[in-house]
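Below is the record:
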Amino acid sequence: MYESMSRDLAPLTLSIVAIVIFVVMASLMDPAASGEDLEAPVADAGSDRTAALGQTVAFDGSGSSDDVGIVGWEWSLRYAGSDLSFGGEYALFTFERAGIYQVTLTVRDGAGNSDTDTFWVSVA
């Protein structure tokens, strides 16, 4: 009886082994299936702007994209002799000094890949 049952299960066992091998090979060939994210995000800080003294300017990083998802947004600029940075997909900053300021957005995905984009704010 045991011998007969073993013979009947042999094709099923081979099928299961073949499926497991196929799944393992597919995950090795597809980096996303193995949890690897090799594609960097694309930062989009928006276009250049003009602002009046004392005007609050909105920073909008929502145009940025990634194949898996963005987990971090960092805005930076040099203002009044200091390097400033703040996080968030959206941010607000009030310019109290005239000048031309470069604002940089850095976005990161969960795998640590990053990209940057800049825009200029002309304050008069």
About this structure: The CA atoms of residues 86 and 115 lie 16 Å apart. The chain has a mean pLDDT of 83. The first strand starts at residue 49 and ends at 51. The two ends are 93 Å apart (CA to CA).
